[in-house]
């Protein structure tokens, strides 16, 4: 199967699962449920659930568990976007080419939409029929919490208008953006109980050690690609336009936020993205064919234009 076919088929599967899991738009209270569906459905590249699926497929995970974990990650991502767009945060009016939730339904309901989507994510993940479901819930909670995404956002808000070193910028984005991307890969790996075929060769150790090795490589991949995603985002904020990006372009510069481009410059930011891309691919090279979709997703993340 070609990568575009794999990606569109898996994204459609996630879309159907999300549509089924979300409350019906006409269920009481109607405005909240209607807004939740607006925030989640009908837009986005579904990069995070695709990472869950690709990582899980590399270690022989069952599809049903991967779809549920992918939905949980996407619900956390959707909640974070709703809250990020609020006037008290980034004050954005455009998301995925449409008016943001608070523009359509008001700030108070948008806050509740985010709250409800976050709670729903853990409800979905807790229902995964795998021995490590509790650890998976803990993994996602850590990625979304004060040491992960929420903490990174707090650092970001405090950094507006001030200087920031490259090390501090990387720490912020490993939390704000990288933590959830890393959790996506880790959740996929946690769903699996068989090693990638490329590692199942004579002399490679027993099944348990081969699976541990595959998971360690996936973790290294996730660290690199999580940071690369944000570097590319910062580049696109400078080079892109609202029609292509589906969100307000130039927002970071207008808000005087520290970015990789403002700290390193455009050329060095491009070099950093390329180096992180290479590191991600190197980490999963021993997975062979089992890591094919992860390699293709790394290419998509770093070479994307939106």
From TrEMBL:
The keyword Metal-binding is assigned to this record: yes
Domain of life: Bacteria
GO molecular function term, any single one: metal ion binding
GO biological process, one term: terpenoid biosynthetic process
PROSITE patterns, A to Z: POLYPRENYL_SYNTHASE_1 (PS00723), POLYPRENYL_SYNTHASE_2 (PS00444)
Keyword field contains Cytoplasm: no
Keywords annotated in UniProt: Isoprene biosynthesis, Magnesium, Metal-binding, Transferase
InterPro entries attached to this UniProt entry: Isoprenoid_synthase_dom_sf (IPR008949), Polyprenyl_synt (IPR000092), Polyprenyl_synt_CS (IPR033749), Prenyl_diphosphate_synthase (IPR053378)
GO cellular component, one term: cytoplasm
One Pfam family, short name: polyprenyl_synt
Cofactors that this protein relies on: Mg(2+)
Family membership noted in the UniProt record: Belongs to the FPP/GGPP synthase family.
Name used for this protein in its record: Polyprenyl synthetase family protein
Organism: Zeimonas arvi
């Amino acid at each position: 199967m070609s990568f575009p076919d794999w990606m569109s088929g898996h994204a459609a599967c996630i879309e159907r699962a999300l549509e089924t899991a979300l409350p019906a738009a006409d269920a009481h209270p109607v405005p909240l449920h209607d807004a939740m569906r607006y925030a989640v459905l009908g837009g986005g590249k579904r990069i995070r659930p695709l990472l869950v699926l690709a990582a899980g497929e590399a270690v022989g995970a069952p599809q049903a568990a991967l779809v549920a974990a992918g939905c949980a990650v996407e619900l956390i991502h959707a909640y974070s976007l709703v809250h990020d767009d609020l006037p008290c945060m980034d004050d954005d009016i455009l998301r995925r080419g449409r008016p943001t939730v608070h523009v359509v339904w008001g700030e108070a309901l948008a806050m509740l939409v985010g709250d409800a989507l976050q709670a729903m994510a853990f409800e979905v993940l807790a229902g995964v029929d795998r021995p490590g479901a509790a650890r998976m819930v803990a993994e996602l909670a850590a990625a979304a919490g004060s040491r992960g995404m929420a903490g990174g956002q707090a650092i970001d808000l405090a950094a507006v208008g001030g200087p920031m070193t490259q090390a501090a910028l990387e720490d912020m984005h490993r939390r704000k953006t990288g933590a959830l991307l890393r959790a996506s890969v880790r959740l996929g790996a946690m769903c699996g109980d068989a090693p990638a075929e490329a590692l199942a060769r004579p002399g490679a150790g027993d099944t348990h050690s081969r699976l541990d090795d595959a998971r360690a490589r996936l973790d290294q991949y996730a660290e690199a690609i999580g940071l690369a995603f944000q570097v590319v985002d910062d580049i696109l904020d400078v080079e892109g336009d609202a029609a292509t990006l589906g969100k307000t372009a130039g927002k970071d510069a207008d808000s005087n936020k520290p970015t990789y481009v403002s700290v390193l410059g455009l050329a060095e930011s491009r070099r950093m993205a390329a180096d992180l891309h290479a590191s991600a691919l190197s980490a999963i090279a021993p997975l062979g064919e089992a890591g094919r979709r992860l390699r293709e997703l790394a290419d998509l993340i770093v070479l994307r234009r939106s």
